[in-house]
Amino acid sequence: MASSRAGYRNLRSLVPRAVIGEQADAMWDVSRRIDSIPYEPLTVLLSTMGTVMQTADEQQFSLFDTDLDPEVEEAKSLAVPAGRNSNFVVYVDESGDHGMQTLDPNYPIFVLAFCIFYKKHYSEKVVTALEKFKFNNFGHDIIILHEREIRKETGPFKFVNADAKWRFVHELSNIIDRSNFILVSCIIDKKKLTDRMAEADNPYHLALAFCLETLHDFLAEKNQSEKKTHVVFECRGKKEDRDLELEFRRVCDGANRKGIQLPFEIILADKKANSSGLQLADLVARPIGMNFLRPDQQNRAFDVLKAKFFCSGGRENVGEGFENWGLKIFPI
Fold this sequence. Notes:
By secondary structure, the chain is α/β, with parallel strands linked by helices. The chain is built from twelve helices and six strands. It has two domains: 52 residues, no CATH class; 261 residues, 2-Layer Sandwich (Nucleotidyltransferase, domain 5). Helix 10 links the parallel strand 4 and strand 5. The longest helix has 20 residues. It starts with a helix and ends with a strand.
């Protein structure tokens, strides 16, 4: 017990006095409570500070593991984790309007894209590459990459000339090319949907169901279909977010082609969240749609993405066999 008390006092000594405002009050309130806490394990104290802890057996990744050999990484991603969460995280974005009241003749489709990352590769390779890209081009990493702003050259993306824009887009395309992630996407042809159905279903909901079902297929292939996987969406508005969450939970509760519960958890991120995964998802959705609308037009972005799609045949068939597998077009 004496050692436990000493440990609590040592922890208390780490609370800095030179903390400003509410943080100081909150931290010193915690420190004052330390002496009143009975001799429970340290995890009890940390839980009162809002920290989510896992046991050693549940820790998925070593924080400073630098062994990033591709074959080793592939083997690690296939290993079933000991904890409750899968080895994967999903970031989602869309392209086009999901409403059915009007059709944009230039873009009469809705595209939903799921970018599935192996967490270790994402945290150690993808995030750092994108951060370095921002530092190189802007001098800071607070910038948020938006495909539309880059394409339209608005906001912070005003290029001095065409060559500067080409270099910027080329570097960004290289990051996407070298980032290992699995792509699952659905294109809803709104014109065909209207022609077939008097009261067409919500294109977003149709695409969401397909992508969640295919995500489950992917995780089953990795022997992790029973583990919780977090699916991250960008907030779009109170009503839209509420509708999305209800539909997400409805599909996960069994309203899917498999008729089973899907162990997915929805995360709604603020639009200002500087998430590398959400920014990459934003960059991939439109090229998928443009390839559908103009298949004969050169589309370098889609050429890169073809190798990312979840496909039949596994790694030996990369870039082939993804139609109606990792890429669903509806109606056909």
